[in-house]
Design brief:
By secondary structure, this protein is of the alpha/beta class. The chain contains 11 helices and 11 strands. An 11-stranded mixed beta sheet has the order 3-2-1-4-11-10-5-6-9-7-8, with helices on both faces. Helix 3 crosses helix 5 and helix 6 (152-168) crosses helix 7 (191-201). The longest helix has 20 residues, at 229-248. The radius of gyration is 19 Å and the shape is globular. Pathway: Lipid metabolism; phospholipid metabolism.
Length: 313
């Protein structure tokens, strides 16, 4: 397994990324390799400084960096030797099984759409957010930011995509799908969510349990939470802030500690040709390591191949 990692992406790159790669390398299988993408004359001295002497990390040189504030489309077209462009190039050529970056989120999305592209039959790739559950596991919510507005048929497909992720990556045998809404009753919600409910209700590929409300996010009512990216992003950012507030007040609890972005490391881009994970801009070494390990699980569960099998004609 070859997992490409953007060494130059993130507020604390490259130091935090290189440290995170070393942490992840210790937990990978002996034949797995992390491809650290970035400026070799910057990365190699750091590996030496941190006394890395293993065989699980290789450097792939990329001379350019897409900064956080740059326009995604313009930057990718102008910086063809950037770490993000090179990472997607490796994924497209199947020289990497997954690509992870805590860099420019917009560039990661644009790269996914225009480099490796969506799986044929996928209407809109989405970003999945892993949601801690009170029972100890995780659920997945999609979308959490890629698509602010969604048509009913897109929301319906999110239910299918999320079910595949929940079943094979989170290992939930028959994942329950809930539609985020402002009431449990079937007729509640916007025109789009009402229409999506009717489509999800008759979809035999999923275990649809109906509408769910905000109070159901963390209980076991639904394993897959379907919503547009506007709603999902607000929920995700609020959950992260709850952790920050509790941390500031020195209040700790095993459940709320899972709200820390470091716990899962990143958010998967679902529905593209290959596996990609977007990390938080402020990713620490622990977050980087968990992002790589999440990508490893996506590859080993053959997630991308399962999307192909379902949607490609």
């Amino acid at each position: 397994m070859r997992i490409a990692l953007d060494a130059m992406g993130g507020d604390y790159a490259p130091e935090a990324v290189v440290k995170g790669a070393i942490l992840a390398a210790e937990q990978l299988e002996k034949d797995d390799v992390i491809l650290l993408i970035g400026k070799e004359d910057v990365i190699q001295p750091l590996l030496n400084e941190y006394n890395y002497a293993g065989n699980n990390i290789k450097i792939v040189h990329a001379s350019q960096v897409i900064e956080m504030g740059e326009h995604p489309t313009k930057a990718l077209s102008q910086k063809t030797d950037s770490s993000i462009a090179v990472g997607y190039g490796l994924l497209k050529m199947q020289k990497a099984d997954a690509f992870c970056s805590a860099g420019n989120t917009g560039a990661m999305l644009v790269g996914a759409m225009f480099s490796v592209k969506a799986v044929e039959g996928i209407l809109r790739p989405s970003i999945g957010g892993l949601i801690p559950k009170l029972n100890g596991g995780y659920g997945i919510m999609l979308d959490v930011g890629a698509n602010a507005d969604c048509k009913p048929e897109v929301l319906e497909q999110f239910g299918e995509i999320g079910s595949i992720y929940a079943k094979y990556v989170l290992e939930i045998p028959n994942p329950k799908v809930g539609l985020m809404n402002l009431g449990e009753e079937e007729g509640k919600g916007t025109v789009a969510t009402q229409a999506a409910h009717q489509r999800l209700k008759v979809n035999s590929n999923i275990n649809f349990i109906g509408n769910i409300e905000g109070r159901d996010i963390f209980n076991d009512k639904a394993d897959v939470i379907v919503c547009d990216g506007y709603t999902g992003n607000i929920i995700l950012k609020m959950a992260e802030n709850i952790y920050d507030i509790l941390n500031e007040k020195n209040m700790h609890d095993p459940f709320f500690d899972k709200f820390n972005y470091e716990a899962v490391g990143g958010s998967p881009i679902l529905g593209i040709n290959g596996n990609a994970v977007i990390g938080h801009g402020v990713s620490s070494p622990k977050a980087i390591s968990n992002m790589v390990l999440q990508a490893q699980k996506m590859v080993s569960s053959k997630l991308s191949e399962r999307f192909h099998k379902k949607y490609s004609v």
